[in-house]
Amino acid sequence: MRRVDEAMKKVISEAIPTLKDPRIGFVTVTSVETSRDLDHAKVWLSVFGSEKQRERTLAALDGAAGVLQARINRELKLRRTPHLEFVHDRAVEHGVRMTHLIDELAPPEEESDDGVD
Asked: How far apart are CA 71 and CA 43, in angstroms?
């Protein structure tokens, strides 16, 4: 299943930029989880922008699910083409937030006079 998930991630990642819907912003497919029976696939996405932009992008991708499923079927030739569910992946945002918090807590670096660190 891991190979199927990775193959689907690749196809979807390549297909999204070709969609002509202006509501779709900057999207990164972070992972795909496909059910064992290939009936359903959860596509985790990171969307750059505001909450409103995320909602518009997810709505546009839901509307384009049939086009994306057809491309998956054409390229991967699975015995079944899974129904796609798009989910916003908050892990990236959480990681960036944690990095900022750590940076705020870190002591400032001192510069040395001899130019050697």
From this structure: 15
